[in-house]
Amino acid sequence: MAQDDEKTIDQLNEEADIAADYLEGLLDIADYDGDIEMGIRNKRPVVQIVADDDSDIKHLVGKNGEVVDALQQLSRLAVQQKTGERSHLIVDVDGFLKHKRQHLRDVALDAIDEVRETGEPVDLQPMNSFERKVVHDLVREEGLRSRSHGEEPNRHVTIYLKASAVDDEQNIDDEYDDEVDETDEIEA
């Protein structure tokens, strides 16, 4: 399927079903109790694992969401194996991504305030592509500029004041130069 072709609701639901079955199998193997909720958000299939036991759920999130990321990658591979097409499936565990997005927004807004107060650029800590995209989108909404610098895993975002119209035309590609690696992207 061409990248620009949009998948139908039935195709997105099929991807969610495949991922849910795969994740249920993993939960059974790991002997974790959890409910699987499925849906579609922003034209992407979403599968969320919700558990009653806080200790189990913490293991499914992992340090800095590393287990959530791994579950998403494995689920995307399972979907691709069954459908033959790459999936942009989102896997979340007990609302972790929502909390992560809010934390990133808070960090970015603090940096935006600092840039506005001082007029000087602010560098943020290294982030993965999902985190950088959240920051770039918020910076753009707030009327400032941002740019990613460095190499993975130390790639970070710098936030700048919006330059003059002449500078904007010269640097139009700099406003958001961070291509999101779909294999790394997760979204709430």
TrEMBL record:
Tree of life domain: Bacteria
Annotated segments matching region Disordered: 166-188
Gene Ontology MF term list: RNA binding
Name listed for the protein in its UniProt record: Jag protein
SUPFAM superfamilies hit by this protein: R3H domain (SSF82708)
CDD domains tied to this protein: R3H_jag (cd02644)
Listed PROSITE patterns: R3H (PS51061)
Domain R3H: 98-163
InterPro entries on file: KH_dom-like_a/b, KhpB, R3H_dom, R3H_dom_sf, R3H_KhpB
Annotated source species: Bifidobacterium apri
